[in-house]
Amino acid sequence: MNSALLLHRHASPAVAVNHLLGAVFGAVLTASTLLLVSGLLTPLPDAVAAATTLLVVALLAPAVFRPIWRLPQRRWQVPRQVFDDRPEAAARRFAFQLGLGFRTYVTSPAPYAVATMLALVAPHGLGEAAIAAMSVAVTFGIGRSAVVSSHALFGSAAVDQPRWALNAASLCSLVAVAAVAVDALSA
């Protein structure tokens, strides 16, 4: 049985909240690490960083519709043992590992664009950078928890998304990253 289906079978409001918290905390850790990397890249001129971010978005955009090359990722599922715990704890651990981003499959080029944005054009001030990291983490957590939450609230999971909807979501992410990079270029 697919591991993610185990979460849906036990979906309750408590499972949905734990899934959201796990995804957000995992993404906070990832975003914070990327902001540390951005600190190492501060000698890079802002125009170069913004142009590089735009170049990465341009290279990733075709991958939304058809993978042109393999993006770096671990090609395995979150281990089955994660789901051996109580459903609430299993949901939190599973989502935390999703939030880390390097523990399982990445099915969209959008996270790579967001990671590039955080590393290259993140705000330089500590407070602004923390807000950027939290915004990315909360957005990721809400997006990744939508299926579990809908199952908990409505009793059915919208797992099979039409391909056009997934492509549109990825494109929206890429456009948002490009907008941030263009804004950084004009600053």
Can you put this structure into words, describing what you see?
With 187 residues, this protein is mostly helical. It has one domain (3-186). It is built from seven helices and no strands. It has helices spanning 3-9, 13-40, 46-60, 87-100, 110-120, 126-154, 163-186. Helix 2 (13-40) packs antiparallel against helix 6 (126-154), helix 3 (46-60) runs antiparallel to helix 5 and helix 3 (46-60) packs antiparallel against helix 7. It is globular, with a radius of gyration of 17 Å. Residues 1-7 have low confidence and may be disordered.
Total of DSSP H or I helical runs spanning 4+ residues: 7
Q: Can you count the beta strands?
A: 0
Distance between the termini: 51 Å
The radius of gyration is 17 Å
List low-confidence stretches: 1-7
Structural category: mainly alpha
Q: Biggest sheet: strands, sense, closure? A: none
Mean pLDDT: 81
Could you say which overall geometry the principal axes of the C-alpha atoms support? globular
Give the DSSP E fraction (strand runs of 2 or more residues). under 5%
- Give the SSE order as H and E letters: HHHHHHH
Residue share in helix:
55-70%
Domains (count):
1
Q: What are the key terms here?
A:
about 190 residues; mainly alpha; 7 helices; about 70% helix; globular; disordered N terminus
